Amino acid sequence: MQEKQNEPPKFINLLMLFNSYSFFFIFLPSALTIYFILNKLPVVEAGKIWLVFISFIFYAYCDTNYLVLLPLSIIINYFCSRYLSIDDSDTHDKFLYFKKKVLLLGIIFNLCLLGYFKYANFFISETNNLFHTNISLQNIVIPLAISFFTFNQIACLVDSYKKNIKGFDFVDYCLFVSYFPYLISGPLVRYTEIMPQFNDLDNRYFNYQNISEGLFLLSIGLFKKVIIADNIAVWAINGFDKAATLTFLEAWTSSFCYTLQLYFDFSGYIDMALGIALMFNIKLPINFNSPYKALNIRDFWLRWHMTLSRWLRDYLYIPLGGNRNGRARTSLNLFLTFLLCGLWHGAGSTFLVWGILHGCGVIIHSFWRRLGVTMPNLIAWLITIMFVNFAWVFFRAKEFKDAYKVIGGMTGFSGIVFPGSLAYFLNFLSPYGVTFGNAFIHIEGDLSMILMLLISIGIVLYAPNSMELKNRFNPSLKWAICTIILMVSGLLCLTKITDFQYVNF
């Protein structure tokens, strides 16, 4: 079984990611200063051209692989979208026929591009396993951000065909696809919600309110990534990648460490992206709304990676038929949507299993809703978070053997070891195979791990989320001090630059 391809591109330059000194002290200040200076010139497009230029610089600096791929994809999709956006109210059926062909060819082009670079070796490996062939794997490095800029452009093709977009400017289109805050890891955006903001004359000028709110969001995201996610990641890595075996507590701790790491890492990136964009007077769509507070799996997907959920609903689930053709077809559509959701995240069988688990979970929930049976919120939350945590095991595991190792530990098949300090109180469990000693020896866990987990869980369950904090924000001394503390603590801990989890997808 081929190891899934969820590693960052081979030559990715971490020195230009959001959590780097070069980005904070050179790239971002320069980008902002020159942008607002250029916006004062009589050349209307000057500021946008500058953003396109620095976005390509940002992309090229992060990833030296296939630098021609992004502009090539933009050019082809631009002409397709522009053709599809032509007013056809006074044209004949033959023109409409050609528009359907262009839409189909545009989508095929994007899917082929994504399929070759991201999934070619996966399908070759699976073919070799199934049919015992010996087809050589290709020397392919996955281009950075290909999943995100491909999905954004497919959405633009469909919206152009549906006449939701009328008319295209090449600079606008380049900026829509390449805008650096969301280029690498989202959120997924639509042309109609981004470009009108860039073309609004009021947004061309420096806005102190947006700058202060943007810095606040940026500081929250940096704190989440550097202080929380990167520290919790140590024990997740020890459990999933280093330990040969995991006992009961070690397996559950490792899995929850990853569950929390992924949330704080990805939501931290999104907070930073929203904050950076807001400093340019651009409001990006919200991508998280306290997902680990969800009381069912459908609620989870309404809160987690919300722009991806929206994309899958509008451009996959509804075109497949949605819920319009009976319960059996609705269930099939849900299953296929989540199957492809899993595949979108990465080329690996474990990603498919993760997608299948969530698809089955959503289908089971839909049947449960029709029964009209309710349960206490605490029970509903526990079932939901346990299911989500269990599914993340496959999402994180590089191979099935890693997933089996963790799940085997979670079910107690690799032994149950409690801390020695609990032996006096829990000694009655000894006849059932429970032993006492160093309960976290294989993942090198200690008191700091337990404290970090408890603090992280407390933040997830009881603290207001980033958007709630942003809505409370006002430019005052209290909020300025909060911003400075978060920002400085994050910057002081940038001793080791690590990639964001969703850069890999």
Explain the overall architecture:
This protein is mainly α and 505 residues long. The chain has three domains: 62-206; 207-284 and 443-505; 292-411. The chain is built from 20 helices and two strands. A two-stranded parallel sheet has the order 1-2. Helix 3 runs antiparallel to helix 4, helix 9 (208-242) crosses helix 18 and helix 10 crosses helix 16. The longest helix is centred in the N-terminal third of the chain and has 39 residues, at 93-131. Mean pLDDT is 92; it is low at 5-11.
Provide the succession of SSEs: HHHHHHHHHHHHHHHHEHEHHH
Radius of gyration: 24 Å
In total, how many beta strands? 2
What general outline do the C-alpha atoms trace?
globular
Main β-sheet, in a few words? 2 strands, parallel
Low-confidence stretches: 5-11
CA distance, first residue to last residue: 20 Å
Content-based structural category: mainly alpha
Lateral arrangement of strands in the main beta sheet: 1-2
Q: Domain count, please report it.
A: 3
